[in-house]
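Onboarding guide, step 5: your first structure request.
Type a short instruction followed by the sequence, for example:

Predict the 3D structure of this protein.
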Amino acid sequence: MAKQQRVPLTRRALLAGAAGTALSVGAGMTAKKADATAGVQTPTKRRSIIYILSDDHRYDAMGFMKHPFLETPHLDSLAKNGVHAKNAFVTTALCSPSRASVLTGQYAHRHQVVDNNSPVPSHLRFFPATLQTAGYETAFIGKWHMGGEGDDPQPGFDHWISFKGQGTYLPTPNGLNVDGKRVPQKGYITDELTDYALDWLNTRKGDKPFFLYLSHKAVHSEFIPAERHKGRYAGKAFTPPASQAADMDPEGRPLWVKNQRNSWHGVDYPYHSDLDIAEYHRRYCETLLAVDESVGRIIDFLRRKNLLNDTLLVYMGDNGFAFGEHGLIDKRTAYEESIRVPLLLQCPALLKPGTVMDEVVAGIDIAPTFLEAAGLPPPAPSAMDGTSFLPLARGEKKPWRDSLLYEYYWERTFPHTPTLHALRGDRYKYIRCQGIWDTDELYDLKNDPGETRNLVRNPAHQETVKTMNARLWQILKQTDGAQIPLLPDRLLWQNNKRRPGGPPAATFPGYVTQPPPEKK
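The system replies with structure tokens like these:
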């Protein structure tokens, strides 16, 4: 597919209304499409939106998802009183690429923020700028973490509060950037960010619709719970996942996965330490409690201000997190624990309580969904890879994707995970590794939700492998993703150690070491 020549969106086009929506929310539009939409008028109905994004929150770490001990009453209430998108995913399970995909509606290979250190390309435009142009008052509060360690105010936001890099859970001098000025971080980060968010909501002037992006640091490692939550789950039982077993599917498990067990992101040498995974999981749950309380405070504010009925409140995680699945911790992989996230929506005037969405939706769908909720025209196909799922959340039927592309690009600093592309369908998941001598993967998610049996060489599934491989490449070609992004090394150090005396390097399985069949 030939690449289209993109042109920047001009101020004149922005002022035309819909052209600013069909936006340039990302890399922009072709000149022909920009001209075709320039005369469309912006609808008068504009709904206020609050988007709460947490870090490393996996899809099943909520009370209503039957977690054995975690209590999340406020997240549970969102599901009860709104919509639970039970099959929500990210298209890259890594902080910066995932967040850039939310803001642009694009896959990482298009927006080019492919790791946590790559700079944000100057041509990118984020959807809050579209809302701002349409008359919204906008605020960003929390973790930005794109383009390296910077925390400078970004275009599209009237009010800005952030911190450098991952930030810190506990107070630090000059820890926050408030509208370009350094101020001390005075309290526990989840609480303080929520305080700032409520202050902004409470002191806004006028009747403009608003968009608030509350971006929590939690529950990113290292997990540090608020003082009031420390020890809440001490002694709670943790059952290692079945797929953690080292002898699980010996012929089907990729060599790189076996070898990663004894690495920075593996259960045999986690973070090059003697970390107790069970205790780590308990701290994760305790750290998440303050996030749940934050959601409750936002809901309570909206209720007291008579804004709850008409405001679209959305909660989401930026990627998942593994606690032993496949012998791994952290994210980055294409397994469910890494790519699947919580996604909850509430707006009583718009959404029916107790709705459960089965369709596969993703971070790339957030921007077009919010634009529709704001009463703005849909973005041009050349601007976004995602699609608004608001009709699905309202219970309407519409044509929808049958599969979702996932991508992760090898990082020099974490060399144990290869470049991966995957296709996640309703029934099957196909995973393709790039640049290494190893096996691809195919899982039957209906009969094997834990992804424990690789079917990629099963004779009965060869047609599925062939079809999904072709579909994966079709999506890559349609979205200009058939080339591997290659960017300069910004960090030269590597977390590449192995535990002395730990599990040895994996050996090739029998299907590789057997002699080739005789040619007839």
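Each response can be followed by summary notes, for example: Residues 302 and 308 are 5 Å apart (CA to CA).
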